[in-house]
Amino acid sequence: MVNSKIQAAEENLIHVYNRFPIALDHGKGMYLYDTEGKEYLDFAAGFAVCGLGYGNTEFQEALKEQIDKICHISNLYYHETCGEAAKELNRISGMDRVFFTNSGSEANEGALKAARRYAYTKKTGRYEFIAMDNSFHGRSFGAVSVTGHEAYREPFEPVLPGVKFARFNDLDSVKELVSEKTCAIILEPLQGEGGINLATQEFMEGIRRLCDEKGILMICDEVQCGMGRTGSMFAWQGFGVKPDILTMAKAIGNGIPVGAFAMTEEVAEYSLKPGDHGATYGGNPLACTAVKKAIEIFERDDIVGHVKRTAPYLEKRLEEIAEEFAFVTGRRGKGFMQGLVFSRPVSEINAKTLEEGLLVIQAQGNVIRFLPPLIAEEKHIDEMVCKLRNALKQIQ
């Protein structure tokens, strides 16, 4: 019998998502529960969104209090929460100025516009972008134009012109594409959708040096890998390589739709001016309350330190799985953003883990992603490994 809630969704929604056949109802801590009462250990966190897990009372109470006051005002007016959230986000990200959006795609759209506007103001004549193979920056036109997968771009061509793609972690391939028209280089320090590919220290430093030498802006997309997931508040901080523009979303709002792009004072001075960009809901009081409270809890509870301390155990247990099953060919990633690489398609694996009550997600190149809420403890990792091993034994 088909779950009535799933059937209702199938009959009324445009079919653009490959959804799993479960209807989730509520969550608590590391666990989600479907409408039939089945429990699932969550190692996906809503694509790295729910960093604090589910049902955090303090976070929820802050949102309820703000709802009772006001959820939305026009961006023609100031509100205290927006200023406070911006100050805190700049502080923890190491940037100087921030613009709030509603999503990661919007954040990347804003970053691309800011880079173009910077070139326009400086009268450099630059307009081209260099992006990376296997990258993912979103599905809006600008974001998909700099996404390094033909499958995402091809159905919507012609996309944004002036984009070239280099090989990730190959600095020479980037240098070959640089010209007097190069406006910015955009990359993820740790690629998510592209298969959990971590930038090397040499590559990050090389990109920064190249940008400085050529007058090019460096854009880091940390929509997925930011906000504590790699064991530093933002991934660039772990490399010690600061971008000119930083994009973020997902865990900065812990489930409330909010994104942001931030920049240095230098870029802010010469880029977007009043009227150049906007977002009706961007920086609304509810979203800013979520950002402000999430940052407060992250710092007070030392979430980043917890990830740094616990991640080696996650890596160890995943490597044990790789050693045990011949069709698991390796582990890669950093912090609580890990992947196992398989020598066979992973759709069947996803189906089996779901049966075992484990939520994981796949990425490009036959990779299973492990993106648990950042509150995951060793006992949750052990439980995940047990469920994963049971699932893999059914298909070996």
Task: Tell how many strands the DSSP assignment holds.
Answer: 17
Q: Tell me, what's the shape?
A: globular
Structural class per helix/strand content?
A: alpha/beta
Query: What's the Cα radius of gyration?
Result: 21 Å
**Strand ordering within the main sheet:** 4-12-11-10-7-5-6
Tally of DSSP helical segments: 15
Straight-line N-to-C gap: 29 Å
Spans with pLDDT under 50 lasting ≥5 residues? Answer: none
Helix content: 40-55%
Largest sheet: 7 strands, mixed
Provide mean pLDDT, rounded.
Answer: 96
Q: Strand portion, in percent?
A: 15-25%
Modified residues (N6-(pyridoxal phosphate)lysine): 250
Binding site for pyridoxal 5'-phosphate: 136, 221-224, 280
Subunit structure: Homodimer.
GO molecular function: transaminase activity
Explain what you see.
The protein has 396 residues and is of the alpha/beta class. Helix content is 41%, strand content 18%. The protein has 15 helices and 17 strands. The chain has helices at 4-12, 45-48, 57-69, 80-93, 104-122, 141-145, 150-153, 171-177, 201-214, 235-239, 265-270, 285-300, 303-324, 347-355, 378-393, and strands at residues 24-28, 31-34, 39-42, 97-101, 128-132, 163-166, 182-187, 190-191, 197-198, 217-221, 245-248, 259-263, 328-334, 337-342, 358-359, 361-363, 367-370. A seven-stranded mixed β-sheet has the order 4-12-11-10-7-5-6, with helices on both faces. Helix 3 (57-69) packs antiparallel against helix 12, helix 4 crosses helix 12 (285-300) and helix 13 (303-324) packs parallel to helix 15 (378-393). The longest helix has 22 residues, at 303-324. The radius of gyration is 21 Å and the shape is globular. It is found in: Cytoplasm. This is Acetylornithine aminotransferase.
